[in-house]
Design brief:
The complex is a heterodimer of chains A (223) and B (297).
Chain A: H1 9-17, H2 22-34, H3 36-53, H4 62-82, H5 89-117, H6 130-162, H7 168-194, H8 199-220
Chain B: H1 2-27, E1 35-40, E2 46-50, E3 55-61, E4 65-71, E5 77-83, E6 87-93, E7 104-110, E8 114-119, E9 123-127, E10 131-135, E11 139-153, E12 158-170, E13 176-189, E14 194-196, E15 203-208, E16 213-216, E17 224-229, E18 234-238, E19 244-250, E20 255-257, E21 263-267, E22 271-276, E23 281-287, E24 292-296
Classes of the chains: A mainly alpha (223), B mainly beta (297).
Amino acid sequence: MSAATHLDERERQGAADGTLDASRALAVAAHLATCAECAADVARLRSLVSLVREEPMAVTTEEDLWPSIRLRIEAAKVVRLGAADDGARPARRRRGIGIAATIVAAALLLAALAQMQRVRVPPAAPAASAATQLDAAFASVADSSRAFEEESNALLNELEMRRAMLRPHASAALDSDLAVIDRSIDELKAAIARDPKNLALQRLLAASYREKVDLLRRANNAG
Amino acid sequence: MRGDRYATRTLAGAVLLAMGVGHARAQRATTAEPLLRSHALHRGAPVKMFVPSGTVRLVGWDRESIEIRGRLGRAAQMSLTGSDSGGVKLVVEEPAGATTSASRLDIYMPRQSQLSLKTVDASVDATDIGGWYYTVSGSLRIGGSMSTVEAESMSGDIALAATTAWARVRTGAGRLLVSGAPEDVDASTVGGALDIATSAILRGRFASVTGDIRYASSFAPRSLFEFSDHSGAVEFLLPRDVSARFELSSVMGAIDNGFMQPRPAASGVRSLSLTLGAGNANVVVRTFRGTVRLRSS
């Protein structure tokens, strides 16, 4: 695997969601350190995976809930123990047990729902704030755009040197498709100039550059 | 479920009918065609082919050999070189300006061959052969079963109807149909329509610049999808019992929700989050000017 060959889709997806085995992960990490395009794509995939995992409606399993349940039970114990001298201990103890039982019941119910719905289980929520995550996603997508733009410029230069070898039909198809993609890029850049913090626009721009890179690679095979 | 099958069949039928002329021609070739060349070939060995024009039917078989049957165009010449373990290379050459549309080849090779096929404007129909397919303006139809497949064209039509773990499919102005049972799919067009008619996909990334994208099926449980289009429409024709969570957004286009009783999670002027059924799949859609439509089948 070299920077010239690039990671295949499964390696990119695996790097993004952390499902590669240890030996493969090392090789992939080494490649990512030297290949801006793969690194940008993996960053983009990570951002997609994190978006999915951040969904507020995701169902949590009993295992994921237990640490927080335990904390709350412990917290309840502290209150109960500290209040033992006031003579109200039995009633508070019953209330504490009731709270704990309710929480455990809720956890079991959610776990059962998760099993029934077979929803992918997200890992524990990251501590970073939503704003920080949004900034990270924005930076990641902007990096993707830049990487694709640089690669498209390099491919375009390479293609121009080989342009005479293209069959007329391929050359015409290339020009037509390039014009379509460049129009979309221009439109998106104008929209981003008006609304620079719009993540959706940045993602669409990255997608358009990706299409341009793919088109130029195909054109390089058409000679 | 019945609606789902109906929608899938309708879309697949319409697109296959439109793309089927070359395919039907290719299907007429039979093993009764004269044998042109044959060579021993181990399973898994690479096979490189350059067949500029005509029709090519590729069939994976369980023998350890490659066999080429059919007829060449009048001015065309063919060479088959290589070794059984190192792989073979098949080249069809045409004199400049020659018209060889009459070339018709049936090629049989081991199912596990790693194919690398390039054509200019040939119609290719392949079954049970994975690898890399490329055509400038011809058509590609890939079916059967293989581990991975990559199909690319500048302007030709591509129909993927295969069972495969991973597929990457690209065309420019051509039409692209994804059916069969692929698991991970990355498919895009520049201006051509992109149709998806399968519920087998576990991870899908579909994109176009100006072509319309249509998805007519249900979603596999726990599947992840990303759709992106600049100015083409992204349309979903879904069964009423669909189970998916949608994040739909369009910068300038409309979002048209044809489901009667969705459970919207959030909505803005041109964005909509909603859950249908249990929300078992995750679907993200982004367009700039294209309309996003949800329809029940």
